[in-house]
Amino acid sequence: MDKHFLSSLFSPASIAVFAGKPEAPETHTPQARVLHQAITAQQFTGKLIFLDIHASGTLADLAAVNADLAIIALPASEVASALEIAGRIKCRSALVISSGIDAALATELHKMATRDGIHLLGPNSLGFQRPHLQLNASVAGEIASQGPLALVSQSGALTASILDWAKKNAVGFSTVVSLGPNTAVDIAQVLDFLASDAKTHSIVIYIEGITHARRFMSALRAAANAKPVVVLKAGRRAASNQAALTHSGTIVGSDDVFDAALRRAGAVRVRAFVALFSAAKCLASRYKPVGRRLAIITNGGGPGVLAADWASEINLDLGRLTPAQAHALAPQLPPLATLTDLIDLSEEAGPEHFRLAIETVSKAPQIDGILVIYSPKMGSDGDAVARAIADFNRHVSKPLLTCWMGDATVGDARKTLNDAAIPSFRTPEAAVGAFGNIASFYQNQQLLQQTPPPLSDLTKPDVEGARLLIESVLAERRKVLTEMESKALLAAFHIPVTKTILARSANEAIMIATQLGFPVALKIDSPDISHKSDVHGVALNILNATSVRDTYLDMIQAVTKLQPHARINGVTIQNMANLKRGREVCVGLVTDEPFGPVITFGAGGTMIELINDRAMELPPLNQFLARRLIERSRVAETLGVWRGAPAVNMEALEQILLRVSEMVCELPQLREMDINPIIVDESGALAVDARIVVDNAAPSMRQYNHLAILPYPSQHEQLCPLADGGEYIVRPVHPDDASMLQDFVRSLSPESRYFRFVSSMQELPATMLSRFTLIDYDREMALVALITEDVTDAQGQTTEATRIIGVSRYITNPDRASCEFSLVVADEFKGRGLGSRLMLSIMDFAREKGLTEIEGLVLANNPNMLKLMRGLGFVVKSFPEDPNFKLVTHQLQLV
């Protein structure tokens, strides 16, 4: 419930402005002149002080100045001096509006700010605006209108352009932040603030690149969990890696990975500037789950067909009325209306016909959204139709979008629709694209809720054996595993592979093939050959010993001629996969900068670069994520009943993806991987070939540090005894715990609720409940204590029910070295050792993360909590900022 650590930056009560000598405006920098005009053009709600770094005065005079925020718009040579003064007057934040400050000076400014505990936005920033505070701390133009939208941009030029565009299009903002290069307060911290900002209802981001993937994903997931986030990213180039050693590494570009990261974070990506604000507006007005089935109501066939075509292009489904619904509606419409696919009301449709159609569609459970397209017709009244829709809008629970085509005669109608908060578009494609963003957002929200553990519930893999194998390869100064080694690694994680034996001579090949049984496949075994087929290194369906001998000799000769410098270990012999109606798929791994490992899935075989069928997902995976990953691929269409072949065993395919996810989580040395092909049919799945690339992993004291999304820490679950009998489970919180947590808060006594939240709230607001259960385990932790009891219902039947009886949590402070904790225990379980166990467990977790200090605020009139803190070794001190609280701290010793 405390203020966010960036409140002093974005919600300051007082500001000290360093913009040069007041009496010599001609000496001011261009930024200083623009800033002075911008910040004084309206009455800032707080206190504004202008300071000159060259002014004479005593230290006592300086100490009397008090400000939350320092804004510095001085020549580069004077910025450090102003930042020094900001530290002396105890500013908690600083904004440096400047240009031309190089990376070296920026680093020095960052060090100064860190030393004085200052949050530094800049240098080289255009600043920020907070319209509801009447604060224009920027050089990006006039202050924006107030509104619920926040804008975060990494481009100063684009920030100014957006503000100019927004003024004409009546778009209002809660916050506008222009970050610029070399800023200390980064995009992740700004998102973290906006996630909890009550004035912000949705967020739009323009991004050019990120440096800290884990921090960015953490903040983006938290923000997208609380409110809609729409992202426009520059640099959508094809970033194929020509140096990659696997098919997957060759065809996957960094922009594809960014798409996968945004999808997993629950955000929506748009491809064009014009879609940025329409997406944000639509999402903010319809913040609840919808599917992909869009019904199109029109009074003209052509525009309706255009809309349907574009819906198909972006993978939306056309929402159709059932025969019964169409039969009931038809008598109320003009005689030429058609209701088969599009709901074409015909040119004779009037306001009442549109209203009836919308009413029918809004009640149809098989339809998720409604698009109304109006084309001007002789004798029709578009304004009246718009009024009818606007009046009926409050009865529609589904997303309702409109497209009034034309220009000269439809201006008033569009205004009527906008005033009723109904999104209106000029073209059918734009309207369909906006609904596509809504549908994508809610699909991505499902992905956001998934927090799988690093290891699935499948049979435990041989992780140590796999690590030893990789270490032996790296010890030989190799990075590419042979096919034999690759399959051994897969087998350690229980991925089914074809039995493969290496032959070093033609005679060995004959003996091995005879023992395995014909037909067999022969493949060249060389660490220097990435794609065996390219050098005639693969032969299939060899039926007898003579063919094995001849094929072996021919293969060695051909490969030696085509790749004279390649090291050849021999030829591997394996049975041909006996899956006659199987489909070939490929599961792969690529390592992205900065997001780390990414799992890919798509069509397999020898033409995968040409087919270029790649869906991808960030690890870790669970069954839900694995199924969605498969469904996003083009090859998914062939996995059901297809050309007479029965549907494949999807569970077997999902298990391979889960096993690959386990490999990625447990083996940070993995860099690239192709399991290609995997042959899958109704009986199961079998990996026929594999190629794996490894490298030394960066040393890290934190497990899973190589992942952009930290897995659910299931290893921290423990069974604990109660002091007077019974037992309970302590484990990390999970998104599915939301309803249990709400019941727990409701069951607390008013006193316990007040001690925890310093508020008389009866229950947690939805945003806070979501924030408390969907957490990033890298920067925070919440442990819940659960007890299972027998409950008898009204019919006298007894069932087991699990409930939360205590919660401890910490969140890492901005210094990333200390953390702040909270603790609450159910009233009937106080004094039974539960509070001590929850605190000790949360402290152990903080130690494991490398944190050095844990602290918290306890109400001075809460003697039981203060007694517990002293018993655990905490130091209890007065809290200077509020005498009603005590500050309790404990040094965490690293084990």
Topology of helices and strands:
Layout: H1 7-10, E1 14-18, H2 30-40, E2 47-51, H3 59-64, E3 69-72, H4 76-88, E4 93-97, H5 103-115, E5 119-125, E6 127-130, E7 135-138, E8 146-153, H6 156-168, E9 173-178, H7 187-195, E10 202-207, H8 213-226, E11 229-233, H9 247-251, H10 254-265, E12 268-270, H11 273-285, E13 293-298, H12 301-313, E14 317-318, H13 323-329, E15 343-344, H14 351-362, E16 369-374, H15 382-392, E17 400-404, H16 411-419, E18 424-425, H17 428-448, H18 463-475, H19 483-492, E19 500-503, H20 506-516, E20 520-525, E21 538-542, H21 545-562, E22 570-575, E23 583-592, E24 596-603, H22 608-611, E25 615-617, H23 623-631, H24 650-666, E26 670-681, E27 684-687, E28 690-694, E29 718-721, E30 727-732, H25 738-747, H26 750-757, H27 766-773, E31 780-792, E32 798-812, E33 818-825, H28 834-848, E34 853-859, H29 863-871, E35 875-878, E36 885-891
Parallel strand pairs: 1-2, 1-3, 3-4, 4-5, 8-9, 8-10, 10-11, 11-12, 13-14, 13-15, 13-16, 16-17, 17-18, 33-34
Antiparallel strand pairs: 6-7, 6-9, 19-22, 20-21, 20-22, 23-24, 23-26, 24-25, 26-27, 26-28, 29-30, 30-31, 31-32, 32-33, 34-36, 35-36
Helix pairs in contact: 4-5, 7-8, 8-10, 10-17, 11-17, 12-17, 14-15, 15-16, 18-19, 20-21, 23-24
